[in-house]
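Annotators were shown the component list below and the corresponding predicted structure, then asked to write short factual statements about the assembly.
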Amino acid sequence: MKEITIEIDGRRVTVPEGVTVFEAALKLGIEIPHLCYHPSLPFLGACRLCVVEIEGARGLPASCVTPVAAGMVVRTNTERVREARRTILDLLLANHPLDCLTCEKAGECRLQHYAYEYGVASSTWQGERKRLEPDESNPFFVRDQEKCILCGRCVRMCQDVQGRHAIDYVHRGFAVRVSTPYDVSLTETSCVFCGNCVTVCPVGALTPKMSRGRGRTWEYTKVRTVCPYCGVGCNVYLHVKDGRVIGASAAEGPAHEGLLCVKGHFGYEFIHRPDRLRVPLIRQGKSFREASWEEALSLVAGRLLETRKRYGASAVAALASAKCTNEENYLLQKVFRAVLGTNNVDHCARLCHASTVVGLAAAFGSGAMTNSIREIAEAELLLVTGSNTTETHPVIGTRIIRAKRAGARLIVADPRRIALAEEADLFLQLLPGSNVALFNGLAHVIVKEKLYDAQFIAERTEGFAELVEALEPYTPEYVEGITGVPAELIVRAARMYATARRAMILYSMGITQHTSGTDNVLAIANLAMLCGHVGREGTGVNPLRGQNNVQGACDLGALPNVLPGYQRVDDAEVRRKFEECWGAPVPTQPGLTVVEMMEAAARGQLRALYIMGENPMLSDPDINHVREALEKVEFLVVQDIFMTETACLADVVLPGACFAEKDGTFTNTERRVQRVHKAVDPPGEALPDWVILCRLAQKMGYPMSYDHPREILEEIRRLTPIYGGISWERLGTDGLQWPCRDADDPGTPYLHKDRFARGKGKFHPVKYRPPAELADEEYPLLLTTGRLLYQFHTGSMSRRSQGLEAMAPEPYIEINPRTAEVLGIGDGQLVEVASRRGSITLRARLTERVARQVVFVPFHYAEAAANVLTNSALDPRAKIPELKVCAVRVRPLGANGSDGGGS
Amino acid sequence: MSERNERCWESAEFRDLLRVHANQPESLIEVLQKTQDLLGYLPRPALEAIAQALRVPLAKVYGVATFYSQFHLQPRGKHVIRVCLGTACHVRGGEKILRRLSEVLGIAPGETTPDRKFTLQRVACLGACGLSPVMMVDEVTYGRLSPQRAVELVLKYAAADEQVAES
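Structure shown to annotators:
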């Protein structure tokens, strides 16, 4: 691109053609006053505060919309310019209340800042003023129209970045303002309450409700940390005053570009909820009594050692936590492996991406997202499957929408007509559990039409011939019969994917939570390798991880068959390395997975279970069975921040610290290790989980102590090659993406460049197998489960955050209106949903989002837990249960839950 | 008002219009104009249908519809009276004419009579300053008015409508 040199305030600067004068000035460190300009938003040139003098130009151009031209001579701060700015501020203040004394935004208000700088105390203009009541109609933020300066930042954020366009300028002239159509509440619009409009508002027009009246910028400190909800890994500032988190705001970060979703922005009330666990509790009959740490940990240590002594190490197991830090997960598996001598360590990744870890490790040699979130913008085509991204990974969801609107093509394959389907070029509404058939069908077309990348296949892969043979039966017509997707769409999708120069696949639970989960992942990997869409920027196979640190918990060996860094426990060389560091033998046999632990417990073979920050009583399939199993366990320890459904069954409950109360690291879905910083103290006597684990180890006679998690990270670094270059100091604010092998390694944005982690990529021929349970006469509908934007996992955090709970307070079942009609079910009616394993009662929501033979229930709600219904049938290799498909029947109930008369 | 007019956005003509412009966000203003021609104003269900058909967010549709003075979100009278208050008309008593019509019709400027016969509007200039003070009823311009003369003209329109209705 052509470079242009201009002069600004007597200094020369060279920038690429097309850059604005404003940006060129920024490069020189000159910040021209501005209100409507924001680096994340399209330029508008509305506020006119950024006017400058340009030699030879007429008037005073707005620098934010004036491109540089060769030889320009710009002056940014002459008296003429300053006078123009004073006039603009004078005009703005004519219609802006001067209530800085009580304004939430005082101290960080741009208008206040410039009024001070330019000495404009009040307006010289007297006249009619806007008089409008503030809009308080949503649970998250307030819009004060009187303070609005009409800069349009919120409109552009909503329209161009977030892609919702819930608000716009309405009316004209003096009456113009930013609002919704017909001034309805935002809760009745397409708004998703990401609050990114609040982030960019330069004045006090948009302010969060949570922090109202609780302190202003000079009163609180901002602590940078990582959002504790999903796996995107957005960076946030927690606002801390007098030891309490009084608010939160977006921080810039590479994974999310300063954007947040509703949970990351407003979901923090749970931190200071009075029902946080504050002291250790020991079971006494049907209730608990408070205990000292000394007593509780002595009891836990004693019982764990005793169980091992009497029944052997295999009678002891632990569930690690995708919510805890890397360091804590590392310590948990270390304690159970080194001190108790068992590999019975697993966590909820088993229930979400175990099939990814197994499948992608087999195909590529590494079981993580191959590419980076940022690269979504580089892809020419995005194939999103089994992921309701705008609700489960909202910040990635908006990035997909932005990419689509910027010209990328989008294919969505999902059993439900999710929000992304509305944006898609092609929507393939497949039946739950028919994924292998669909992807084999796409591959079949690509092979038949010779659209594959022959050079890539020859140089980088093996097993192509076997694949071609296995794909033979999967003609579009045959696949239509299995999936319900029209053959013609299958052909079009295949051609679009194969002919794009850079195509990226993004997927989630809809692919993995099946008895065919590993096969689904392999079928996707086959498709990507077939077209050479791996190992380059803007391509790849990208499993979106659900929890803030589920990637990290896997990385750090909270899995029964691998030590940290996916180093196999059955490899003597690996074991020796860990044994040297830990000073204790590492057991050689792989341990039990989550669902196998429950089975072993039910059989009486697993006698002591230690659960750190997990809630299997809601998250695991077939909850009635889980309850039986946990009740049968002789000694159950739950370490958590709330009295969860699982903790209620425990013998000892240990109060842990939440993310805001400790230092450590989380690893996000794109393998980015990021620093988590302590903002406040834990409540009562609660302790960071890493401290609890150290004390427990000591009680069991194993010396283990660290002064700070950075020391644990240092130990991890020495033992884990993919984390080999990751130290607390190096992480800084942007973090590092593994593999990062040594102190000079900048980290790896995308995997498998030039060479797959396993050498050559391996095609695995896979066959379609139907789900373990299909609809039949007795249970005629297919149930699929999933997540909602306003809730998270088992709800222990989101359901304790008022706004989130207000937006999604109640469980429901989505039923197609035509199916509902046949069953005699009206919208909002109570229904009973039953599977072979149990039944739940909840309200029906009639919607075309689901096909006629499919129903959907979100799994967050204990009062109607979807997992009472789900099937614990396992994928044979990954041991992931089939949470996404089971057979159910639905019948209407009367208003009070009685039988409704319908059949 | 007939049942059909109450739910005018369900008319076949309107549905045809939306079909022709389906997935054409760039046709928004044209569709708004044609819709107003068809329906007399822009009722909320029509704007919602336009948003859906053209694939334009409702916020944008509403923003555009409220920005241009040519668009009306409320029902309009059968006859639209525009009283000029440009400089020349202002000097020669336009304000008095407006006030008098407002009293006789029982509505403020910008409003429509409950029987939807008349909409009264104040406008800045009709470009007929030589005839001031001026008003327009629908497409006809009347000049050199007095408040009395203006009222007589408006009553004539009302009478003519009644005759048509009786015959």
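Statements collected:
1. Residues 90 and 133 of chain B are 7 Å apart (CA to CA).
2. Chain B is about 50% helix and 10% strand.
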